[in-house]
Amino acid sequence: MAMEHGAPQIPAKLRVMIKFESTGWFDTTPEDKKEHILPALNEVIAGWKQYDVTLLGTLDRDILTAGHAGEQGFHAVFLYDIPDLQTITNMTHAFRAAGIDRYFRLEAIIGRPFFLLEA
């Protein structure tokens, strides 16, 4: 059975994988992490809920890794359905606005659901 596969169609909500890397995190003290950085990170991520985004899943690589991200370039990934590019920009800018971009790096990869697995 032959399947037709034309040009990709941009979905109503973008499928976005956000790569999360700890950068300056390793240069901080346990006290800074507990008292300042983790509360700020939690506040920023909780703030993403104000947008019309749907968290589909997460993956943290810390089971078999420790330390810097290495060649993979990320420590964790977050998979979302997000309505538009501006929302992605707002989400990444929240890290800058909170001043935690010196401890963490985000990179958004935009796509769509894979046509053979999600109709």
Walk me through what this model shows.
The structure is a single chain. The chain has 119 residues and is of the alpha+beta class. The protein has one domain (14-111): Alpha-Beta Plaits (2-Layer Sandwich). 27% of the residues lie in helices and 26% in strands. It is built from two helices and four strands. Strands 2-3-1-4 form a four-stranded antiparallel beta sheet, with helices on one face. Helix 1 (30-47) packs antiparallel against helix 2 (85-98). The longest helix is centred in the N-terminal third of the chain and has 18 residues, at 30-47. It is globular. The two termini are 18 Å apart.
The share of residues in extended strands comes to: 25-35%
Number of helices: 2
Tell me, what's the shape? globular
Which structural class fits the helix and strand makeup?
alpha+beta
The CATH topology name reads Alpha-Beta Plaits
Taken together, the total number of domains comes to 1
Mean pLDDT: 89
Indicate the CATH class.
Alpha Beta
